[in-house]
Design a protein that fits this description.
This protein is α+β, with helices and mostly antiparallel strands. It is built from 4 helices and 10 strands; from the N terminus they run ββαββββαββββαα.
């Protein structure tokens, strides 16, 4: 979904669209946890003009599947995503290569920012809302998904799912620092 900044009037505009399963899978492709989309994600967004800035408030819900990080069973999960961004025209960001002048007239070193500008993102004349929503979906993903908090995982010896049954393997790992003492015989 692309929106030209000139379309946004004082009252603001609302947009809604779907990110297809294929679009979501392309975003999730590089993720090591193995997330896959189960269905398209419906996105609702509101854009408002705040002087020269644009405020984007959006929400969606991504229905995903991925393997459990402990037992590798497939998990179905819903990832709710709600965010707000303040979008700033690029011209405002380009004050100079090394210094930027703040609203109070004092110069700031490049890379520094005021606290109220921490959530601002520089944009051009046309906003690519799909890219912003995909980025927020990636940020909302749990880094280590598990099927349940009490998941026991897999046996490191035989690979059996310990949630189904106890395999009986000796899973104690001896401390290698004491291994040399085991070879000593007492007389």
């Amino acid at each position: 979904m692309r929106v030209n900044i000139d379309e946004i009037k004082e009252a603001g505009i609302e947009r809604s669209w779907d990110l297809s399963r294929q679009q979501l899978d392309e975003v999730l492709e590089g993720d090591r946890a193995g997330y896959r989309a189960r269905e398209a994600a419906h996105v609702e967004a509101r854009l408002e003009r705040l002087g020269r800035r644009i405020r984007l408030a959006a929400r969606t819900r991504a229905e995903l599947t991925c393997p459990c990080g402990r037992c590798l069973e497939a998990i179905a999960m819903a990832v709710p995503v709600e965010f707000q961004l303040t979008l700033v025209p690029v011209e405002r960001q380009e004050a100079g290569p090394d210094e930027d002048e703040g609203e109070d007239g004092r110069s700031r070193v490049a890379g520094s920012f005021e606290a109220d500008e921490a959530d601002e993102e520089p944009v051009g004349k046309v906003l690519d809302l799909d890219a912003m929503v995909r980025e927020q979906i990636l940020l909302a993903l749990p880094p280590y998904p598990v099927c349940r908090e009490s998941c026991k995982g897999l046996c490191p010896v035989c690979g059996a799912n310990l949630n189904d049954r106890d395999c009986g393997c000796d899973r104690r790992v001896p401390d290698p620092r004491w291994d040399a003492l085991r070879k000593l015989k007492l007389q």
